[in-house]
Amino acid sequence: MSDLPASTAAGQRGPADHSIRDQIIAAADEHFSRYGYGKTTVADLAKAIGFSKAYIYKFFESKQAIGEAICSKCLASVTTDVRNALTESKSATEKLRRLLNTIAVSTTEIAFNDQKIYEIAAYSCAENWPSSVNYVDEMAEIVTSIVLEGRASGEFERKTPIDEAVRATMLVFQPFMNPAMLQYNLDAVPEGANEVASLVLRSLAP
Amino acid sequence: MSDLPASTAAGQRGPADHSIRDQIIAAADEHFSRYGYGKTTVADLAKAIGFSKAYIYKFFESKQAIGEAICSKCLASVTTDVRNALTESKSATEKLRRLLNTIAVSTTEIAFNDQKIYEIAAYSCAENWPSSVNYVDEMAEIVTSIVLEGRASGEFERKTPIDEAVRATMLVFQPFMNPAMLQYNLDAVPEGANEVASLVLRSLAP
């Protein structure tokens, strides 16, 4: 199977929808949750599923690639929570506030309920793994669409270049969005995140 | 000397102005800079100065107390740079901008020129050592005085409760102020810090 084209996800190999891939990810999720990323080897995962290490390497080029898959899944759950929260919001103002609140609360829940997976996400963000870069890019796109919507509706000012407004907003959201930083701000959720959203909304006022 | 009153600095013992204390701090600074905090023992420091470990423990109750002293010195250099930068600023607007720029640039210089000392500062901020808590408190005081000055001069709005405005500003300054977070933003200095200062100034506009 090693002559199959690499899938688009970082470090993944073989057909994207193969059920073996899901089995490996499920086993990794369980092992990483229990023992942590650092202490789990590809051999441990192979043993848990009953395959050889070599067979696992047909689907993932390294342990990091498996970590990436877990991390993408974890960060995608935050993005899904954000998208769901936004469908219920009527104004751009409300959307921006809900965006940051949902990111902060949803990520904090991972920190408390699934500490070892959170550690992978924090490590991924600290090391700029593709999974976390994609996550940040997706959030920046959502922020851009909210700012544009607020500019169109007259809720937000239009003088600041849109790129700068979004870049600066993403920077000040970092302490609640980047798991590597949020770990120092868990006590400030949700009040601190709410106050930061208010500050950003004041900065966007016409 | 062990019956002397403890000095006010965390974990320091004996008379505050004793030259032995300075010798220990100087030796620790050199050792930590070269080998890192984790790899330096109190025995290494004792050997470097030619004293016994027991004698060093008459001045510092633990290695962390020595780390605290180094960290305080390092963070105090940033505070001094900020205070100097502010004396040249005429308006509250200019002061706020210079404050964040100076923090970001000055802390980034430590990261590049004295990496191992920076690691102690980052660790101190991550672990809320008194040295870093004092540093943040001092910066919050400076931010408060700038916001009050800007409110008095009519540069800044007065509707937001002052405590909230300062708290939120301190939160959004974190990615450039907290060494544990700045390490992920070194590439964004000084432009990103400048854009964050602009965002905060827009939020403070009347």
TrEMBL record, chains A, B:
The entry's protein name is TetR/AcrR family transcriptional regulator
UniProt cross-references to SUPFAM superfamilies, sorted A to Z: Homeodomain-like (SSF46689)
Pfam families annotated for this entry? TetR_C_27 (PF17935), TetR_N (PF00440)
Query: In the record, what terms sit under GO molecular function?
Result: DNA-binding transcription factor activity; transcription cis-regulatory region binding
Q: From which lineage does this chain's organism come? A: Bacteria, Pseudomonadati, Pseudomonadota, Alphaproteobacteria, Sphingomonadales
Q: What PROSITE patterns does its record include? A: HTH_TETR_2 (PS50977)
Domain HTH tetR-type, by residue range, is 18-78
Database matches in InterPro entries: Homeodomain-like_sf, HTH-type_TetR-like_transc_reg, HTH_TetR, TetR_C_27
The membrane-spanning stretches of this chain are none
Where the record puts its DNA-binding region(s)? Answer: 41-60
Entry's Gene3D superfamilies?
Answer: Tetracycline Repressor, domain 2 (1.10.357.10)
